[in-house]
Amino acid sequence: MTGAIVNSLRGGNLRIWLGGAVLLLFVATALLAPWIAPHDPIEQSLMNQLLPPAWAANGQPGYWLGTDSLGRDLLSRLIYGTRPALFVMLVGAAASALVGTTLGILAGYFRGWVDAVVSRVLEIFMSFPPMLLAIVLVAVMGPGLHAVVTAVAVIGWTRFCRLIRGEVLALREQDFVTSARTIAMRPMRVVMHEILPNLAPILTVLFGLEMGRAIIVEAVLSFIGFSSSGLATWGGIIADGRAYIHQAWWVLAAPIFAIIATVLGMNAFSDGLRDATDPVLQR
């Protein structure tokens, strides 16, 4: 798989390049936020309420994207907003992948009553609207990033489980898996050495897509006030600026653009990885 990705990069796969650049910029911004943010993201200045961007009419130097209703620098809040988004994206997507992949492999490989139990649980979770389930969970657990991560994992594991189960059902009938079972190889060894490596391409793509979904979930939950209090979040910026859309459109435009660009970058990167690792498309 690594060789296919390298060859795809050498061949100029535009989606991998663009998506990778967006992902790299997003991670670098989150890690370097204390050094690149021009102002304190929570510092208020009522004398600088709703200042337009520096490049617009009546804008002030130093406030490149303007300020919000409390005079806080919008660029600094956007930069710091990448930190909770990155945490939820990585931890939430990883938890979704771990739970969903594990259950999908167990159901697809062992079948029988294990498959029946996992399938029933999967159907129950998929019967609930994902965002409604996430809101209920966070409301019960209380606001905080831990609750947001839990909500992302709870609504995301079903996608991994359903697809991985189908892949494992097909792989377990392949000759190399049958040969491994014939020589009395232990089930866990078959899974780790024969099945899991063949799931790597689809897991890579699913994980990339799940990271984009996690950013959206975090933004929605922070918009309605369920993210960690005191943190600058993209959804929180949108919630604060919606009352001033007619007089300060930039407060809404900046975080919305950041969310759209980041999610599209994640999706482009995942699509590029799919093209690079799909043996059918490589022929």
Q: What is the CATH topology descriptor?
A: MetI-like fold
Enumerate how many helices there are, as a single number.
11
Strand content: under 5%
**What is the top-level CATH class?**
Mainly Alpha
Mean pLDDT: 86
Question: Low-confidence spans: pLDDT under 50, at least 5 residues?
Answer: 8-12
Q: Into how many domains do the coordinates divide?
A: 1
CATH superfamily: MetI-like
Instruction: Assign the CATH architecture.
Output: Orthogonal Bundle
Order of helices and strands: HHHHHHHHHHH
What does this structure look like?
The chain is mostly helical. The chain has one domain: Orthogonal Bundle (MetI-like fold), CATH 1.10.3720. Helix content is 72%, strand content 0%. It is built from 11 helices and no strands. The chain has helices at residues 2-10, 14-31, 33-36, 74-110, 112-126, 130-141, 145-171, 175-182, 187-223, 234-241, 249-277. The two termini are 14 Å apart. The model is unreliable at 8-12 (pLDDT under 50).
